[in-house]
Amino acid sequence: MQATACAYSNIAFIKYWGNRDHALRLPANPSLSMNLGGLFTRTTVRFSADLAADCATVDGQALQGASLARVSAHLDYARRLAGCALRAEVISHNNFPAGAGIASSASAFAALSLAAAAALGLELSERELSAYARLGSGSAARSVPNGFVVWHTGEDHASSYAESIAPADHWQLTDLIAIISTAHKAIGSTEGHQLAETSPLQAARVATTPSRLAECIQAVLSRDFERLARLVELDSDMMHAVMQTSTPPLLYWLPPTVAVMHRVRALRAEGVGVCYTIDAGANVHCLCLPESVERVRAELLAIQGVQEVRAAQAGSAAWLER
Ligand code: DP6
After folding, report:
1. Confidence class of residue 34 from pLDDT cuts 50, 70 and 90?
2. Is the pLDDT of residue 99 over 90?
């Protein structure tokens, strides 16, 4: 009873921040993302009567305490569905360095969900698999389907899932990730989601997300970069406004983060196809049109405080290794 699955990380164009239901990870608002081809987690799950307890390693390091409990609780859901009480061994590797400032919970829980379901012989639809992945990490719901993906808010567990709006080869966008800090963040996203409602700006952000999402879907479908750029930066800025006005306030930006934001805006004013978006950290994701990639990479590397630049193109759905 063993299976191996892989899933790409993703970057949100319209952000998930705050939950209506923290236990089920039902989000406060819908979101839209692009899978990051090349940046993936590969996970093997083995259920066995020989194991007295669940155990897990990530890049060779054994998980303990809260992180092991999170994996174990996630496996419980699949065990309940399958009517199986066996404990599991989870072996997981990221092909990007841990602490490189690239979100790994999305790819990790998408790969874990697919591997666990397959190992137990569960035949879940993509929608069911996405909803299952969401229970482990909200953004993991979006790493299950192919390419450009919308995660519907939903009303309950079954209706809060992600689906593809366009395959990975629909649009050759490149995400150049300007790595500014690899330090572990003081407040991670799980804790951050719980603070969102303390910001007086969250209600306004949530109320206006559906219209930004609708416009962003149109921009992706019609490959309208100018429109996409305006929406992606606005949505990221609105999420960071909420973070910065929460109690306690969360300021993820460092001085080089702001330097990159200014540089990206100046380049776009010159006609270079690039825009920025930032998650719960200091690194900046710069979305580029193909013809802009080399220019933007050189410009980013010239900014003081940018340690390195990683590139990813739109990636496909999560997959099983046979
Ligand atoms: C800022 O999915 O990492 O990256 O459900 O607690 O694991 P948990 O949160 P997570 O939150 C992602 C927040 C974000 C925005 C986004 O990816 O939409």
Report:
1. very high
2. no
Cβ(12)–Cβ(116) below 8 Å: no
Q: Which among 179, 3, 171 has a CA at the least distance from the CA of 96?
A: 179
Mutate to test the pocket of ligand 1, among 20, 152, 189 (most ligand atoms within 8 A of CB): 189
Which atom of ligand 1 is found nearest the CA of 31?
18
Looking at residue 101, its pLDDT comes to 66
The CA distance from 272 to 300, in Å, is 13
Structure tokens at 107: 């790819």
Determine the Cα–Cα distance for residues 65 and 27; give it in Å rounded to an integer. Answer: 26
Q: Which residues fall within 8 angstroms of residue 219, CB to CB, at 6 or more apart?
A: 225, 227, 228, 231
Instruction: Tell which one of 177, 235, 257, 279 to mutate to probe ligand 1, the residue whose CB is within 8 A of the most ligand atoms.
Output: 279
Report pLDDT digits (tens) over 218-240: 999 999 999 999 999 999 999 99
Q: Tell me the domains of the chain and their CATH numbers.
A: 2-170 (3.30.230.10), 174-313 (3.30.70.890)
Nearest to 98 by CA among 145, 148, 61: 61
Pocket lined around ligand 1, Cβ cut-off 6 Å: 12, 15-17, 25, 31, 103, 105, 137-139, 189-190, 193, 279-280
270's CB contacts (< 8 A; 6+ apart) are none
On whether the pTM is more than 0.85, the answer is yes
> Do residues 227 and 242 lie in contact, with contact meaning Cβ atoms separated by under 8 Å?
no
pLDDT digits 0-9 by tens, 106-127: 999 999 999 999 999 999 999 9
